[in-house]
Q: What sequence folds into this?
């Protein structure tokens, strides 16, 4: 039967694995959140009515709050990852310092973000929530900057490795293909980090990006996240 063919199709099983992960669900919600941010801005710029804009403003707010609640406690994971990276004896020094900085940045971001949860949910208003939010954005920007440094350094290393490869030999061909895969992954992560950087830097007033640009950049990085997580759950 057609229904059985659809239900037992490998893509359905893959999808179920994907949405069973917290990361998968978060990336889906994030895509909707940032696209709503862009589209609300677009409707406002094209003289959309308040009734047309309201659903997308609500989606942006509610999905943002949902994701904030899903992140509760995740700061511990990044503190542990920072400690693990700091203790690594085999990692390249530049990548090790960048990894520590990235993980501490994300840990600080999630810690300050955690402090704003009750205020954002309307459970208990707190006057310091705005300041905590700004500190969270500063740590997020630091983490992303460290990630950008790591990806640029990785791409430099790959270029150096590629220059030493003899593509006329069998082992050289295999190594060239391996380098190409690693380069593609690094370039994709770099693009994602640069897109994400628009969020904290614009929120802190360091750059003048509007909601439309930030919304599109956030949507792009979210789609990259979906792609990456989809591959991991294959």
A:
């Amino acid at each position: 039967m057609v229904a059985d063919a659809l239900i037992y199709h490998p893509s359905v099983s893959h999808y179920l694995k994907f949405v069973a992960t917290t990361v998968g669900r978060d990336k889906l919600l994030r895509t909707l959140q940032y696209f709503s941010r862009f589209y609300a801005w677009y409707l406002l710029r094209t003289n959309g009515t308040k009734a047309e804009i309201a659903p997308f403003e609500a989606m942006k707010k509610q999905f943002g709050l949902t994701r904030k609640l899903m992140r509760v406690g995740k700061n511990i994971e990044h503190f542990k990852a920072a400690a693990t990276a700091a203790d690594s004896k085999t990692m390249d020094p530049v990548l090790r310092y960048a990894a520590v900085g990235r993980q501490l940045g994300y840990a600080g971001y999630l810690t300050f973000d955690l402090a704003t949860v009750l205020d954002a949910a309307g459970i208990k208003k707190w006057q310091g929530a705005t300041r905590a939010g700004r500190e969270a954005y500063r740590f997020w920007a630091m983490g992303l900057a460290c990630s950008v440094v790591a990806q640029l350094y990785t791409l430099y290393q790959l270029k150096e490795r590629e220059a030493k490869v003899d593509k006329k030999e069998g082992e050289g061909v295999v190594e060239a293909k391996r380098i190409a895969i690693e380069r593609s992954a690094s370039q994709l992560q770099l693009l994602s980090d640069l897109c994400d950087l628009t969020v904290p830097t614009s929120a802190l007033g360091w750059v003048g990006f509007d909601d439309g640009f930030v919304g599109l950049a956030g949507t792009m990085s979210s789609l990259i996240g979906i792609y990456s997580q989809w591959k991991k759950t294959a």
Summary: The first helix runs from residue 2 to 7. The chain has a mean pLDDT of 93.
